[in-house]
Design brief:
Elements lengths: L1 E6 L3 H9 L7 E6 L2 H11 L3 E5 L7 H10 L5 E6 L4 H9 L4 E4 L4 H10 L3
Helix pairs in contact: 3-4
């Protein structure tokens, strides 16, 4: 089973990602809404892939990516955002995020990210 962590302060965004997961794969989606939850879920489940919302209260997705890496979490990281300004993308890439899943999430976009991540 491939474990995927989605970190987003919006319960609706987390629900949409879960709803668009391919039905043909063996995926388990776990969720967090902030840094503390992300660290706890990542340590417990050791996900292969982590989606990080960029615009969250407290810390943005790039900052959380750095915290996950510092905690020894070795997952593929993707930014989950509607904000695709170059500055946001650059900050994400500098933090070790490998790609972007642009909101609004669709089944096709998500399937492409899973393929790109080798999952």
């Amino acid at each position: 089973m491939t474990k995927i962590l989605v970190v987003d302060d919006s319960a609706t965004s987390r629900l949409l990602l879960r709803a668009h997961m391919p039905k043909t794969g063996d995926y388990q989606v776990v969720e967090a809404s902030d840094l503390d939850g992300a660290l706890a879920q990542a340590r417990e489940h050791r996900p292969a892939l982590v989606f990080l919302d960029y615009n969250m209260p407290g810390r943005n997705g790039a900052e959380i990516a750095r915290e996950l890496r510092a905690a020894g979490i070795d997952a593929v990281l993707y930014l989950l955002t509607a904000n695709t300004q170059q500055g946001v993308i650059n900050a994400a890439l500098e933090a070790g995020i490998q790609g972007v899943l642009e909101k609004p999430i669709t089944a096709d976009k998500l399937a492409q990210v899973l393929r790109d991540a080798g999952l």
